[in-house]
Amino acid sequence: MKMHRYSSKLQTVMFSLLGILIIGLFIVFIPRVFSSTPQNVFFLNQNFRNTAKNDIIPYLQLMEKQWISEQLQIEALDKNFLIDKKALSIQWDINRIKKALLQRKNENQHIPLFFSWDEKKVEEAFHFIAEKTNSLPQDALQINGRIIRSKVGYRLNLSDAIRETRDGISQANN
Question: Domain containing 2: what range?
């Protein structure tokens, strides 16, 4: 009889521990399942605090359409160039942006813009910019016994310019 009594006490303790564990997990994880995005998550200066999970993708699609309709401003050697974003075939990676919005780690975190573009079209656009900003160095002149130094020429470094532009777009600088 004592053996049976001991096992029923053990069963009671085990069921109590299991119940406490289940209630603890419920308290920890259920609010995350039913909540909207975490507080103070920013993407392109928009706060996604009150946006429900199933509203994120339609909202991002609307934001993408508006963002792409604006022109991309590139500054090279004190000259401004406006480039049509559609011409570069820029597309947002909406699923990756949504995942980043939902998995943010810190308060007031800014989510970068994840996107792709047509590399060939981007290179063509930057070749055009390079042609417009290219100034060849001029030879030094000698006038009235004085040597006048040559002017320094400038050539746009395409790979650096493309990388800077990609980084700038990702950080929502344009």
Answer: 1-34
CA 50, CA 80: separation in Å to the nearest integer?
A: 37
Q: Which amino acid is at 110?
A: H
- The answer to whether residues 159 and 121 touch, using CB atoms and an 8 Å cutoff, is no
Within 8 A by CB and 6+ apart from 38, the residues are 49, 102, 104
- Strand pairing partners for 41? 109
CA distance 115 to 171: 11
Task: Using CB atoms within 10 Å of the CB of residue 117, give its burial: 0 to 12 exposed, 13 to 18 middle, 19+ buried.
Answer: middle
Name the pTM for this structure.
0.62
- Name the amino acid, one letter, at 165: T
Residue tagged 């597309």 (tokens):
91
133 and 54 in a single domain? The answer is: yes
For the segment 59-98, what is each residue's pLDDT rounded down to a tens digit? 999 999 999 999 999 887 778 889 999 999 999 999 998 8
Domain count, the chain: 2
Residues 65 and 16 in one domain: no
